[in-house]
TrEMBL record, chain A:
<feature type="binding site">
    <location>
        <position position="259"/>
    </location>
    <ligand>
        <name>[2Fe-2S] cluster</name>
    </ligand>
</feature>
<feature type="binding site">
    <location>
        <position position="243"/>
    </location>
    <ligand>
        <name>[2Fe-2S] cluster</name>
    </ligand>
</feature>
<dbReference type="GO" id="GO:0006221">
    <property type="term" value="P:pyrimidine nucleotide biosynthetic process"/>
</dbReference>
<dbReference type="InterPro" id="IPR019480">
    <property type="entry name" value="Dihydroorotate_DH_Fe-S-bd"/>
</dbReference>
<keyword id="KW-0408">Iron</keyword>
<dbReference type="Pfam" id="PF10418">
    <property type="entry name" value="DHODB_Fe-S_bind"/>
</dbReference>
<feature type="binding site">
    <location>
        <position position="248"/>
    </location>
    <ligand>
        <name>[2Fe-2S] cluster</name>
    </ligand>
</feature>
<protein>
    <submittedName>
        <fullName>Heterodisulfide reductase subunit F</fullName>
    </submittedName>
</protein>
<dbReference type="GO" id="GO:0046872">
    <property type="term" value="F:metal ion binding"/>
</dbReference>
TrEMBL record, chain B:
<feature type="domain" description="4Fe-4S ferredoxin-type">
    <location>
        <begin position="231"/>
        <end position="261"/>
    </location>
</feature>
<keyword id="KW-0411">Iron-sulfur</keyword>
<dbReference type="GO" id="GO:0051536">
    <property type="term" value="F:iron-sulfur cluster binding"/>
</dbReference>
<dbReference type="Pfam" id="PF17179">
    <property type="entry name" value="Fer4_22"/>
</dbReference>
<protein>
    <submittedName>
        <fullName>4Fe-4S ferredoxin</fullName>
    </submittedName>
</protein>
<dbReference type="InterPro" id="IPR009051">
    <property type="entry name" value="Helical_ferredxn"/>
</dbReference>
<keyword id="KW-0408">Iron</keyword>
<feature type="domain" description="4Fe-4S ferredoxin-type">
    <location>
        <begin position="305"/>
        <end position="336"/>
    </location>
</feature>
<dbReference type="InterPro" id="IPR017900">
    <property type="entry name" value="4Fe4S_Fe_S_CS"/>
</dbReference>
Length: 277, 337
């Protein structure tokens, strides 16, 4: 990467996919061939993506490191930088990328376990990175259960991959929405409620959960009640992050820099943090 | 330690002005159109003529960190056919001598080093280059004021930590204590051996200056127990204006912003006491109240940084106390926590 830690490497936008009315997925390739070939990352890590002159913001990598030559970020229109990303960028444009940053998921430690993926809305993005990594190494993992929720059917992301996931060996996908429409044939209700109906087994299983804070807050007690140990519940924390390497101070919680020491933590670690999440 | 005649030393400093370049404390009060012309407004500045240099002052208003971590660093870029070209001419890494920083400021540089130049994974190349190319010649402090508490922070007004050489004002001479190779190369050939008698006198002088420092900060205190005390942190932060002067004048505060604005990438200071510092684009602000922000500042300085690096992120320079518009006293806040 760049010798100067504050400066990005340049990436060309190869493809833009409309996921939902306010989420787009950007497929990016580094302009510099050696960077493109040597860029490696772990699921759960993130990059700082910049529209030069407009702004920079952190996004988790939604692509899987098992699929080389490109990276993907799914971006929801929220603030100044994401507004610029949505409104100004077209395929072929150039953006800046710094990273990868953060600890990422401990994929090695998950090997041999059953995996329960729980996602809400755009929270599926980092889980998709891990999910596709595990599917590309399917024999290393046990049963895979995916519980994916969204506000409405329109807000579901990566719909084009559901079929692949459903067909994968020993893998089940459960979809739920808060508000259904006439076309909807899957579950209705918030994620914790769906989880209670699905009743996933906690033996030798790791739960990986990502979504809006309110979903995480109400899902954690359900998992504990089902018998999951706090060490086996993994989530990613959200904080304002700017530099990505534990210096600028924005994401600090207690003595922890979420950007560098996180963003992936297990529930046992989070319980020890004094400040509220 | 060596001893040198003052005029001889000042003559040498005059040479540094043209080569390699000298940065030293200057009183800039006269250049302001304010009513405060009588006041001392002492800052580090690139020296043009020898008459500007001050040898008698308490401390600069702004710390020496400005030189290594400028209030804002701008990375210009221009569009090219495919992508952008970054213009990095800003990092020239010219050799410079900084004269006249107090031992407290020198110590603060060693704390910043831990974050910016000693982090092998994410090293700030600008910072590291400047550190490498700069010789720090400190000036021992002989008249601390009531806000100073360096002696509580493991240093003294004569400390050499972070310095390449320390100069001590001694009667009509300067005593020179060269610390590093850089210091020895610059000053090693100067003056004559001070001898044991002067060494002893310097020690006595140091002890007498230390005794002038009355303020203490009890850093052995376990802050943990105060964390949950809503009452305490509300009380101590109640008058805080969230103006951020404590963070900007602090020689060891280093939080910053990184932003993109019209063809520029800007790295500029920010501070944890500002309302929007932790605000996320979702609208959620994890430190929306003054008590949470002020508590975080104190805990970062006296707990979190110490857990990570073994030292407090404070050197007792007293600037945050001296310049706080509502007289919040961080040493007292720690003592009473």
């Amino acid at each position: 990467m760049h010798e100067n830690i504050y400066l990005p490497n340049l990436c060309k936008i190869e493809k833009i996919t409309d996921e939902t009315p306010d989420v787009k997925t950007f497929k990016l390739a580094f302009l510099d061939e050696s960077v493109r070939n040597n860029f490696t990352y772990k699921p759960g890590q993130f990059v700082e993506l910049s529209v030069l002159g407009e702004g920079e913001a952190p996004f988790c990598l939604a692509s899987s490191p098992t699929r080389r030559g490109f990276i993907e970020c799914s971006i929801k229109k929220m603030g100044k930088a994401t507004q610029a990303i949505h409104d100004l960028l077209e395929e072929g444009d150039v953006v800046g990328i710094r990273g990868p940053y953060g600890n990422g998921f401990s994929v090695e430690e998950m090997k041999g376990n059953d995996l329960l993926f729980i996602a809400g809305g755009i929270g599926l993005a980092p889980l998709r990175s891990l999910l596709n990594t595990t599917l590309d190494n399917r024999t290393d993992f046990g049963k895979i259960t995916i519980v994916n929720g969204a506000r409405t059917p329109k807000d579901l992301v990566y719909k084009y991959e559901y079929e692949t996931w459903q067909k994968a060996k020993n893998t089940s996908l459960h979809l739920t929405v808060d508000c259904a429409d006439e076309s909807w044939s899957c579950m209705v209700g918030v994620v914790p409620k769906a989880l209670k109906e699905i009743k996933p087994c906690c033996d030798n299983a790791v739960a990986i959960i990502c979504g809006p804070p309110i979903m995480i807050k109400f899902t954690l007690p359900v998992l504990i009640e089902m018998g999951f140990r706090p060490e086996d519940i993994v989530t990613t924390l959200e904080r304002k992050m700017q530099c990505g390497f534990g210096k600028c101070g924005h994401c600090m919680v207690g003595g922890i820099y979420v950007c560098k020491d996180g963003p992936v933590f297990n529930y046992a670690q989070i319980e020890k943090f004094k400040e509220e999440f | 330690m060596k001893i040198i005649n003052k005029s001889e030393f000042l003559g040498l400093m005059e040479k540094w002005i043209s080569s390699p370049g000298l940065i030293a404390p200057v009183n800039v009060a006269q250049t302001f159109r304010s009513a405060d012309k009588e006041k001392n407004l002492i800052v580090f500045k690139k020296i043009e003529t020898k008459d500007e240099v001050l040898a008698d002052y308490l401390n600069t208003v702004k710390p020496v960190k400005d030189f290594f971590l400028p209030p804002s660093t701008v990375f210009d870029y221009e569009r090219k056919d495919e992508g952008y070209n970054f213009n990095l001419s800003e990092v020239d890494g010219k050799e410079t001598i900084i004269f006249g920083l107090r031992p407290c400021d020198a110590k603060s540089i060693t704390l910043l080093d831990k974050v910016f130049s000693e982090d092998s994974e994410y090293k700030d190349s600008n910072y590291a280059k400047k550190r490498e190319k700069t010789v720090l010649v400190g000036l021992a402090c002989t008249s601390p004021d009531i806000a100073c508490f360096c002696t509580s922070m493991g240093i003294s007004p004569f400390s050499i930590a972070g310095l390449d050489a320390l100069i001590i004002n001694f009667k009509d001479s300067y005593v020179i204590n060269t610390v590093t190779d850089k210091g020895k190369n610059l000053l090693g050939s100067l003056g004559k051996e001070a001898g044991r008698e002067i060494d002893e006198e310097i020690k006595t002088l140091e002890e007498s200056v230390k005794l002038k420092i009355k303020k203490t900060c009890n850093t052995s205190k376990n802050l943990e127990s105060s964390f949950e005390s809503e009452e305490y942190w509300t009380k101590v932060s109640n008058s805080c204006l969230s103006c951020g002067v404590c963070t900007f004048l602090c020689p060891s505060c280093y939080c910053f912003d990184l932003s993109d604005e019209s063809a520029k990438r800007i790295r500029c200071w920010n501070g944890c006491v500002f309302l929007r510092f932790a605000l996320m684009s979702s609208g959620e602000n994890p430190r929306a109240t003054k008590k949470l922000r002020y508590r975080h500042r104190v805990f970062h300085k006296f707990k979190y940084f110490r857990e990570k690096f073994g030292e407090n992120l404070c050197v007792g320079c007293g600037r945050c106390i001296r310049h706080c518009p509502v007289k919040i006293d961080i040493a007292e806040v720690v003592n009473n926590a």
